[in-house]
Amino acid sequence: MSAASDVTFAQVAAALGLVGVAVLVSLWQRMRLEGDIAVAVARSFLQLTAVGFAIALVFEGDSLLLVVALIAVMAVFGAFTARRRAPTVPGAFVPLLIALGLAGTATLVLLVVLGVFSPEPRYLVPLGGMVIGNSMTAAAVALSRLGDEVTASRREIEATLALGATATQAARP
């Protein structure tokens, strides 16, 4: 039994109607965003179609290995996204990837072991996506804040380094 529902033409038309409202506001306010909106709509359509096919394959395959692979891909994209949101912090990708992977894995394993959810793709994929998405946002905010603090404290950090402190010691508050 499939719990999925098909998107109707009317629903797609309603969504495009909202995009039309955004285009009208852009024209009315002379914002010149119509081209950007068109590109965003095309990208969204292509990305959602590709993701839909990938998720359908995982759900139809009903394999935990496919679920693990999809969660791993989510963690990689989450790490890239969080890294891109905090460009001032070098070398953050690998720690972000480890953190997102562990957060997603630990949460899903705990939920399955405790019997909250059965180990089925229809539960694990959306839950994994939510955990990784929220973890990515929190990590990006924390990383951005760290970068801002280091930038604001640059003189103090450099002075501490000049006095012989290690980089770790100099970065401490």
Automatic annotation (TrEMBL):
<keyword id="KW-1133">Transmembrane helix</keyword>
<comment type="similarity">
    <text>Belongs to the UPF0014 family.</text>
</comment>
<dbReference type="GO" id="GO:0005886">
    <property type="term" value="C:plasma membrane"/>
</dbReference>
<feature type="transmembrane region" description="Helical">
    <location>
        <begin position="64"/>
        <end position="82"/>
    </location>
</feature>
<feature type="transmembrane region" description="Helical">
    <location>
        <begin position="94"/>
        <end position="117"/>
    </location>
</feature>
<keyword id="KW-0812">Transmembrane</keyword>
<keyword id="KW-0472">Membrane</keyword>
<feature type="transmembrane region" description="Helical">
    <location>
        <begin position="40"/>
        <end position="58"/>
    </location>
</feature>
<protein>
    <recommendedName>
        <fullName>Iron export permease protein FetB</fullName>
    </recommendedName>
</protein>
<feature type="transmembrane region" description="Helical">
    <location>
        <begin position="123"/>
        <end position="146"/>
    </location>
</feature>
<dbReference type="InterPro" id="IPR005226">
    <property type="entry name" value="UPF0014_fam"/>
</dbReference>
<dbReference type="Pfam" id="PF03649">
    <property type="entry name" value="UPF0014"/>
</dbReference>
<feature type="transmembrane region" description="Helical">
    <location>
        <begin position="12"/>
        <end position="28"/>
    </location>
</feature>
